[in-house]
Amino acid sequence: MVKRVLTLITGDAIAACLALLISHYLNYGDLPTGEELVETHLVRGALFIFTTLISSFLLEIYYLNRFLGGKECAVRIGTAVIFSFFVLSGIFHFQPLYMYGGWMLVVALIIFGCLQLGWHYLCYLSSRFSAFARRVLVLGTGPLARQIGSLITAGSQNYVLSGYVGCASENVELTPADIPVLAEPLYERVKSSKAHKIVISLSERRGIFPLQEVLTCKFSGIEVVDAPSFYEQMTGKLLLENITPSWFIFSQGFKVTFILRIMKRVIDIACAMLILLVVLPLLPFIVLMIKLDSPGPVLFRQQRVGAREKNFTIYKFRTMRADAEKGTGAVWASMDDPRITRVGEFLRKTRIDEIPQLFNVLGGSMSLVGPRPERPEFVEKLKEIIPYYSSRHFVKPGVTGWAQVSYPYGASVEDAIEKLRYDLYYIKNLTLVFDLMIILETIKVVLFRRGGR
Q1: What would the CATH number be for the domain defined by 134-235?
Q2: Would you place residue 168 in the very low, low, confident or very high pLDDT band (cuts 50, 70, 90)?
């Protein structure tokens, strides 16, 4: 998923460079020399590339889980180009030395929009046409196989379903049309269907797993992957129901090294201090709004479970009545919760209520990115119901996270299970690049006021 976005962004950055070079040639009749590139075009080009990419991001041209179709992509790119024009024109008006003006800017943006549209549409075609798709054969005919088959059929990634291969003694939970009539071994079936990948989707492997046939496929260059790993790759979350402890032990990932922790901590401190400096002038107005809206303290303090299941005090701007849990105890916030104040609703929707958590980040109890910290009362209940729930506490909780930008506000056990899928995927694939993408997605969530409750 991250690779898909990085591929699109890399192609767009190259398209922006080409657009500037072509526009320069059309306006001046030649290409800039190496000296001109360094002295004149370095800052201007960087601003042009940065602005066009940020505009594309804000217009949601980069989706994590799919490529945009032709018409939708064209509309978004056109809007992003217009937005970029106004931003870059503003920069040129106030600082002419740092930005292109006149026809060169207009031509460069038009060329960039065309190149970007062509690049994204090519990526979209490669994900849709079966000629470019990778064919997948599902080994199994039970409920897990049906789930994986449905995922491939409904998914927008570059896969097509070649069929199912049954094993003796496994329950069949597919319609007869779904199951190929096989009179040939697994390897022969793989060759005849020209499958690129086999997904092992047996509900029970003991006594029925065709070991020798799968080994033959593996040694012949066919990719073999189990259902949980394939599900993770397709959805950006983990298939908790079919994961065993051995899968966690032997699967790739979960490499939170000492160096990664140090770098993440340095970035946390730097970003938290920068954000606090930016929002500092707004804090008196926020405090005044809260005090005038309802009686009670400005800051809300609550115990949460952090890394290694150690409790800590989280800080937020108060968004509910001071007696919100009087008579009810610990409960999740609900849609249109009557306990939320008028100012509190605005603070929640804009995520302004989360600002004090930056002090938790500076103090080391939280990170900018990580699983959302839950209350001890809820954690004890969820640990009894949900397998592997404690695993989310092996990293610091975050102000934002993969579950927060991928799934709406959770207020039930079912929501907690779904969020755990995303949290464990994040821990398994934790990198600084992944953190950056989550932060950028969070910016979109805040700007478009999604998911708050």
Answers
A1: 3.40.50.720
A2: low
